[in-house]
Amino acid sequence: MSSSPPPTIGNRVTMTVGGQDVQTLRDILPTRPGLEVLFVAKTPAPVSVATGHYFQGAQGKMFWNRLKEYGLFKPTTQFEDDSLLDHSFGITDIVKVPRAYGNEPSPDEYAAGMDRILELIRVHHPRVVVFVYKRVLDNLLRCRFGVREKSVYGFNAGLTVHFSGAGVFAFPLPGTPCNAAQAVVAMRALAEAVGRR
Fold it and tell me: What does the entry give for GO biological process (predicted)?
């Protein structure tokens, strides 16, 4: 007797990854090209997959709050990710298999994920690609392009060549080594770049 798939909740989907069906979150992308911002996360957190919405853990809530604090995002729905397309924002993950905090993707997963991200950038033409985690950006640059130099919080002008000319931004997430002054400068620059300030 086969079991029926779990009900669809929010943005939760079943996807085949490496020959196995996994519950994950779908990419939130427009049907036509043209994004202001493409947010790139690492992997969906199990709590987010359970609720069917991106960034539902404690650190994820800090991400949404920081966007709201700088006037970048004014959600009109119960869950923030359901309002992304209304702001001309999209979101994806490097690796779609959910992982608990601290469980890092392998170098091969980073390289494969980067190829997928580069294709999304080519198709959707975001003005800015925001890496939610700076460490993810650094790992991608090392695994895919052999870049050993670390990125900085905020815009990284020297990296646009790798991302089809899109601005590349490392998000100053609370709880990271980014200090408060750096975070303010970075977030103001992001707000200006997308015309929200």
Answer: base-excision repair, AP site formation
Owner of token pair 């707000």: 191
Residue with tokens 């404690």: 58
Q: What is the DSSP string of 69-136?
A: HTTS----SSSGGGGTGGGTEEEEES--S---TT-PPPHHHHHHHHHHHHHHHHHH--SEEEES-HHH
Chosen CATH of 12-193 out of 3.40.190.10, 3.20.20.80, 3.60.15.10, 3.40.470.10 = 3.40.470.10
d(CA 26, CA 52): 9
Mean pLDDT of 105-131: 93
pTM of the model: 0.92
